[in-house]
Amino acid sequence: MVKKNLEENIIKCNNVECEEVKRRVSKMFSRVIRSSIRSPAQFQLRNVSTMYKEATTTLRKDMKAAMLAKDAERKDTIKYLLTAIKNKELELDPSKHTEFVLFEIYRSILNQMKTSVQEYQSHGRPELVEKEERAISLVNEYSKSLKVASEEEIVGNVNAKIEELKQKTEGKLNPKVVFKEVDWNKAASEWNASIDTVKATVGKIVKELSSKK
């Protein structure tokens, strides 16, 4: 209806004096169309957590700063993080783009880097060890900037929960009991960690306890 009325007004103005009117009406019509259309990317950004957006924005700004400063080492590390994040984004729904996902990405990369350090040490490459340790330090900075429970905090919470369950079961604790009794959503919320992280930590600790028997 809006389009029809606008077009009728434009048709009525056929003389030179109406050129300005036609220009203004066309401009107004274009604004109406643009405001009514949103790209998929705009809809996706609405679903991404605030901390996720802030963290990824910081990474991009820091990479630009590193490029201007000609700090190739820092630039390469940040670029590596951004690439890993982008690959993960392709796997997940935008609603799952949270600080917890970033934390998992950083943790995975840190584990890879620590493995690389051990390999460089075994091959007698101190210069590569130092370079990798600087990268580890940088990734740790970004990881700690997220308001997410650290691995040590999660382990502490899991151990406390297991002790609580031990008392309920009179010490007869097994993996099935633990996984059945834990309220994963509540635990993740209270411990400020992702459900996947909580489950992985619980599984690891329970496995260690079982192997000691």
Describe the secondary structure blueprint for this structure.
Layout: H1 2-12, H2 19-36, H3 40-47, H4 50-68, H5 72-91, H6 99-122, H7 126-145, H8 151-168, H9 175-181, H10 184-191, H11 195-212
Helix pairs in contact: 1-2, 4-5, 5-6, 5-7, 6-7, 8-11, 10-11
Keywords: Mitochondrion
GO molecular function: carbon-nitrogen ligase activity, with glutamine as amido-N-donor
Protein name: Altered inheritance of mitochondria protein 41
The radius of gyration over CA amounts to 27 Å
- Alpha-carbon distance between the two ends: 77 Å
Strand content: under 5%
The named CATH superfamily of the largest domain: Uncharacterised protein YqeY/AIM41, N-terminal domain
Give the class from helix and strand content and strand pairing: mainly alpha
Number of helices: 11
- The CATH architecture category of the largest domain equals Orthogonal Bundle
**CATH level-1 class of the largest domain:** Mainly Alpha
CATH fold-level topology of the largest domain:
Hypothetical Protein Yqey, Chain: A, domain1
> Biggest sheet, open or closed, and with what strands and sense?
none
Mean pLDDT: 78
Helicity range: over 70%
Q: Per the principal axes of the C-alpha atoms, what is the gross shape?
A: flat
What is the element string, with H for helices and E for strands? HHHHHHHHHHH
> What are the segments in which pLDDT stays under 50 over at least 5 consecutive residues?
32-46
Overall structural domain count: 2
- Say how many strands there are: 0
GO molecular function: carbon-nitrogen ligase activity, with glutamine as amido-N-donor
InterPro entries: Asn/Gln_tRNA_amidoTrase-B-like, YqeY/Aim41, YqeY/Aim41_N
Family: Belongs to the AIM41 family.
Keywords: Mitochondrion
